[in-house]
């Protein structure tokens, strides 16, 4: 077998593996990832990513179950939703439990879904360890969809580097091979496709209870003012800015039979999607030429 044939066969095998790992799609209303378990500061948590299909609205985040109760600020969730092609669709700000919770904690955020588009969640979770936080990345959920998978962009398999030797591409697909991209494929507020820096997305992590509570206070203040954090969306060179990516603070927590926003107000999925759309509209009016 010549070298070209060997490379072709290897590429076919890799493609088959990735197709198997990424084509799990369901006409379901909810899907959880596989669970992991962690014992931190006397509490044993079973945790996973989760994504719910609420008709035209998606809820994506993470959840943890545990025995007994945990105190304020002991669990934090960073909800992240991807499109099936690997593009980052929505990233929410960290949400830490603002009161004592018993038995389980589920939080994340809402985002409008498009018919025929596939989504999954792979969120981060944090557990207070008595001195700071242990940060974990949950497994990726299956895809929520109402249609079958018909195509797959083979180019997502490539590990590409720019002129600064930075790796850019789809985060979940590169992670399948143990690769952490410097620039993560994402779609900006204006719908332009580009890349956001991993350090911009994941650098803001509270290290203790005091920082977590201060972080939440800042997010509540911004939320009440209709503001949110943003990071640049770059071209593949990591220099040219092509759009802006929203770090949403419209996360919610499932409490009994209702949702609460980060200020503790009871909200509906429709209200949160509308609120976020209004926030984006005001941002664009003030910041876009």
Can you put this structure into words, describing what you see?
- By secondary structure, the protein is α+β, with helices and mostly antiparallel strands.
- The protein has one domain.
- Helix content is 22%, strand content 41%.
- Mean pLDDT is 84; it is low at 3-28 and 146-157.
- The strands form five sheets. Strands 2, 3, 4, 5, 10, 21, 22 and 23 form an eight-stranded antiparallel beta sheet that branches. A five-stranded mixed beta sheet has the order 11-7-8-20-19, with no helix packed on it.
- The protein has helices at 3-22, 171-175, 198-202, 209-224, 269-287, and strands at 25-26, 30-32, 36-40, 43-54, 57-70, 75-78, 80-83, 88-92, 95-96, 101-112, 119-121, 124-128, 133-137, 143-144, 160-161, 167-169, 183-187, 193-197, 229-234, 241-248, 251-255, 258-261, 266-267.
- It is globular.
Features:
289 residues; alpha+beta; eight-stranded antiparallel beta sheet; five-stranded mixed beta sheet; 22% helix; disordered N terminus
